[in-house]
Amino acid sequence: MTTALVVAVTVVAAALALAGIASTVARRRIGLLHLVLAGLLEALLLVQAVLAAVRLAGGWELPETATFLGYLAGALLLPVAGVLFSRTETTRWAGTVLAVPAATVSVMIWRLLQLWEAGSG
Amino acid sequence: MAEPTEVPAADAPRPAEGLGRVLVAVYAVFALAAGARAAVQLATRFSEAPMAYLLSALAAVVYVLATIGLARGGRSGRRTAFVACTVELTGVLVVGVLSLADPDAFPDETVWSGFGQGYGYVPLVLPVLGLLYLRAQGRAGRAEGQKSPPPKSPPKSPPPKSPPPS
Predict the structure, then answer these.
(1) How far apart are CA B59 and CA B39, in angstroms?
(2) Please, which residues 18-77 of chain B have a Cβ atom closer than 8 Å to chain A?
(3) Is B48 exposed, middle or buried (0-12, 13-18, 19+ CB in 10 A)?
(4) pLDDT tens column, B20-31
(5) In A, which residues are within 8 Å of B19 by CB distance?
(6) What residues have CB less than 8 Å from B54, skipping those under 6 apart?
(7) Predicted ipTM?
(8) For B148-164, how does the pLDDT look when each residue is reduced to its tens digit (9 = 90+)?
(9) Domain locations in chain B as residue ranges
(10) Which of A34, B6, B125, B147 has the most crowded Cβ, counting Cβ within 10 A?
(11) Angle between helices A32-57 and A94-117 (to 10 degrees)
C-alpha cells in the first residue's frame, strides 16, 4: 500500500463514477470509456493487492488483518461486479449502476490505507 | 369465470431495471460491506460486544434480503424487500437513537450507529428510497393486474440509443 497508488486509484475511480453519471445524464448506455476505466481501476487494485501481499509475507504486521483482507477482497470484487451488472442493464441507468461501485472503491481504498498504516514491520 | 389467467402474469418476477437497478447496486454494496464487517467481528472478537456484533450480522442479513427482493421483483420479491426495508428503517432509527443516548451499550460501531454516520448516512436514506421505489412498483404491478386478460407488456420502450447528430 502506497499513498501514490491510493491517489491513483481514487482518481480513476472518481473518473469512472463521473463517466457513469455523465452517460446517464446524456441518456446513453455505457461505452468503451467505461470499460477501459473499470479495467484500469481493477489493474491498479490488483497491483495494490500484490504489493500488500508481498509486504505481508515479508513480515508487515497489521493490527486488523482480517478486516484489511476483507476490504481488499471487497475492493477487488467491486469493479468486476459493477461491470457485469451494468452490462446487463439496457437503459441509461447503466452508467449510474457502474458509478456506485466506483464511488465505493474510492472510499474503501482510503480505509484500506488507514488499516495498512496502523501496522508495522 | 374460469381461473383468473392473468394472475401469474401479475405475479411473475420482473427483475429490476433502470433506476431500480441503481438501488439494487447500492443495496448490494451494503450487503457486502455489512456482511464482511459482521463476519470479521463475529469471528475475531465476538465476546467483546456480542450485542453490537449480532446487530451487525442482523443488518447484513437484512441488506442481503432487500437486495434479493428488489432484484427479483414480482409480488413475492416486493414483499420480501418491503419487510427488509421496514426492518432496516426501524433498525437504523432505534440503533441511531440508542447509540447516541447510551453509547456504552454500543462499544463498537455497527452500520446503524449514529443513524449510519460512519457510512455517510446512506443507511438512513436507503430504506426510505427502497420503500418509495416499492410503492411505485406496487402501483405499476396493480395497474397491470387490473388490466383485462390480453397480457400487454408495459409500453416502456427504452429511448432510442442512436447517438445524437453532432
Answers:
(1) 12
(2) 18-19, 21-22, 24-26, 28-29, 32-33, 36-37, 39-40, 43-44
(3) exposed
(4) 899 999 999 999
(5) 93
(6) none
(7) 0.87
(8) 444 445 555 555 555 55
(9) 15-140
(10) A34
(11) 20
